[in-house]
Amino acid sequence: MSVPTSPAGPIHRIASIDLIRGGVMILMAIDHVRVYSGLRPGGPTPGIFFTRFVTHFCAPAFVFLAGTSAFFHGRRHAGLPRFLLIRGAWLVLLELTLLRAAWTFNLDFAHYEMAGVIWAIGWCMILMAGLVKLPIAAIGALGVAVIAGHNLIDPHLGELIPALGESRLAGLRKILYLEFFAGPIRFGSDGPTLLVLYSIVPWIGVMAAGFAFGRILMLEPARRNRIGLGLGAIVLFVLRGFNLYGDPRPWGAAAEGSGGSPPMPAWAAFFYVLHIPLIHALALLVSRIRLGEVSPWLFANHPMGNPPPPEGYTWSLPLLYLVWAVAIVMLYYACRWFAGIKARRKDWWLGYL
């Protein structure tokens, strides 16, 4: 794959970025297998808790590196705003159609729609189409300000929420800004119900910061090391881990089981689109082998609108990891095949996958 250039010469791929992206995709698949295992995300055992805990790194890294990929795409190609607009709209459509059907294996769109991470990335790309016209320093400052400061307005929003009730303005607020799980939005008495898992804010800040991070990656390694990004990340981790800032999290209670780069590689988007129906299909197979039938529960409105699993359905943790390993091996070969197609063909539409 060709690399972006600068006046100082070519920018070579940074292996660590590709490794992080690949690791994020693999970790993400663990939690998506867990959805169909019937195991609760917060427990009841430490093994199940940490299986879910490690996947918390996936969404921030996914959105951040999407911004970095956009930066390098703009270095290599003209028309970055147009590209982001089209790709963003395509991702939103994909979330509401193909991915929604893949999660549920049902077509009851009238009662369940899901705004997941692909929805958030799509809308953030649409917004980035305007932001990329700003100076890179301004984009970075905006991203950091949104990430660092959005929790400061939480108390004021807490006073505003009851006043909004279930009005359309309340629905817009859930789409634009709320906690990780924003709850349902109902469009009329007979309209569809949208479950918002990822609001646009603060994720637009994460993507903007990732975009500006691309400029840092263009620096010489010695100069990058002097910036102290590693030390800063450790400080932020400590602040978050001890609940000194951000949404309060009951880490101790959860542990006790109470519940609760360079341009993107050719395989990344393909992996995401393919892994959900593949994992879902493997869950059907497991159900058939273990129970002698395919459980109707697997056709419920996963991952957030489904009821508890029926008695006797829930998997063991080793079975979860076995299914995950099988899925990763199958996805590896499928992604290699797709990467080969993109390497051989230059059709314009392939650039949006």
Describe the structure.
With about 350 residues, the chain is mostly helical. It is built from 14 helices and 5 strands. It has helices at about 15-35, 45-55, 60-75, 80-105, 115-130, 135-150, 155-165, 170-175, 200-215, 220-225, 230-240, 250-255, 265-290, 315-345, and strands at about 5, 10, 115, 185, 195. A hairpin with a 6-residue loop joins strand 4 (about 185) and strand 5 (about 195). Helix 4 (about 80-105) runs antiparallel to helix 5. The protein is globular and about 60 Å long. Residues about 1-10 and about 255-265 have low confidence and may be disordered.
Describe what is shown at a glance:
This protein has 14 helices and five strands. The chain is mostly helical and 353 residues long.
